[in-house]
Amino acid sequence: MSTAAIECRGVKLRAGSRLLVDALDLHVQAGSRWVVLGPNGAGKSTLLATLAGARRADDGLVLLGGRPVEHWDVQALAAQRTLLPDGWLDPFAATVLDTVLTARYRLGEADEHGSSVAGQWLARFDCAGLLPRDVRSLSRGERQRVAIATVLTQEAPLLLLDEPIAHQDPRHQALVIDELAWLKGHTLVASLHDLNAAVRLATHALLLNGRGDWTAGPAERVLTAEKLSALFDTPIDRLQAGPESGFFVVRPPR
Amino acid sequence: MTSVRPQRALAALVMAALASLALALATGSVPGVLSALVDSSAVAGARSAVLWQLRLPRALSAFAAGGLLALAGGLLQALLRNPLADAYILGVSGGAAVGAMLALLAGAGLLGMQVGSALGAFATLAALFLLARRAFFGRLHTAARVAEEASTSVLLTGVMLAAFAAALLSLLLALAPDVQMRSIMFWLLGDLAGATDLRAALASIVILVVLLALAVAQARPLNLLLRGDLQAFVQGVDVRRVRRRLVLVSALATATAVTLAGAVGFVGFVAPHLMRQLVGNDQRVLLPAATLAGAVLVLLADTVARTAVAPLQLPVGVLTALIGVPVFISLVRRL
User: Fold this and answer.
1) Is A91 close to B228, i.e. CB distance below 8 A?
2) ipTM of the complex
3) Domains of chain A, each with CATH number or no CATH
4) Where are the alpha helices (DSSP H) in chain A?
5) Which chain B residues are within 8 Å of A55, Cβ to Cβ?
């Protein structure tokens, strides 16, 4: 049995008085790629922040490498996991390279490989031409890809990504999903809204309905038309024949 | 954005600091004071007294006060991610003034006033962070919007504390006997006439160096903190610990500066701004640059304040504002 990269035991998440997630048991194995799906406000971002140790679970335990995440030293934690938050902040003028290099903080001043690692990830997410630009002069989609490259430059094996393909055009949506699916040596937990991107990326899926209920398991058993229709309260079909077979199609709600 | 090479900017600032120090020591009604450094004849005796007992303590105090105020302002601006933050606007200087006034009215001398002002500064900062502690030291802010609201709430609390301190001051002024009015007014505007103790001046320089070193040691995490609590935490910054340390540094800096020079406004606000234009927002460079710039600004202002209409002396705070405001407005307009 392979080890769990991160694990939830009886985790409860609240937002004010609303119960978002109740008694969540999750076993994310090293090397797997989990996709988190659910309607707006279902607690996807809250769950990712909790897994990252940035907020406490309202009940239950989050274990990283078998140890409660809040017991980890902040700098040691940064070597284990990283988080792409929803809405990355670039509050002041800085070059793209300097922005990406913030992710090397945990490695101290004498970090020789920072620039080459940063350059490599920027290139893989089609940002190589942006290197000398000021981050604030970039479009939102470009900024998001720079943020993804930043997160990977941290070189933590566990990636927690909140809507990584937000603001991406179709070409870059496909590119980002492909790159993430091909990552070696990483464990991934990503929230997504695109069902077909989820199918391409996921080995496992977690559905959150925002009223406490959840479903978790291997992608082929969880990402079904029936379960997704119920989750989003909208008719969703999966095409069965033709070249597009396997694709999800969302019908307008009646 | 015009960024000068950091080493060059810092070197230029050190040169400016030394030049302004030499100017401050050489300027005044007794000429040739600097020659007392190398000349030990009888004539030089009186000049030596002027140098060691009057000009040097005063120049060093001005230098330290300016540097400390600029350091505190730079730190508060970074911690609150708001360019409006500074000890004066957050009510800390006002609180210090109330403390000094209470000491004066209670019949205390200069030393009592200084102790009173330090206590006032600390009490105000303590009240500020106690009132706003949930916003500032509580949970990590996981959303950008929440973090912004938190920093705004600290700033608003500070502005209200400043208003409260101003009201208390007016009340005390109304109750104060006329004979004390003049010295009170000078103190409120910032005044270095009382800085004649060389040991105290040297001690304040040591405090400046120590606090600057402590702040620069936290400059790397502070750079990340500027980008947002959540990002900094994810990348390995112990957000709460860094913030606690830097708040303490800025409190000590403000209290020391106010004790030295009274309520000199504006320096803590303008020096970090000027330097941010020049060297950018990397706190490892910006904090020492702002500190040096603040020190030079107050030292030059004080040199003008004690010589412009000699033998009358002007309060240094008036000069820093008279020079600083036009410079600042012209800078903001260019942005």
Assistant:
1) yes
2) 0.92
3) 4-223 (3.40.50.300), 224-254 (no CATH)
4) 44-51, 74-80, 96-101, 114-124, 140-153, 170-181, 195-201, 219-222, 225-232
5) 139-140, 142
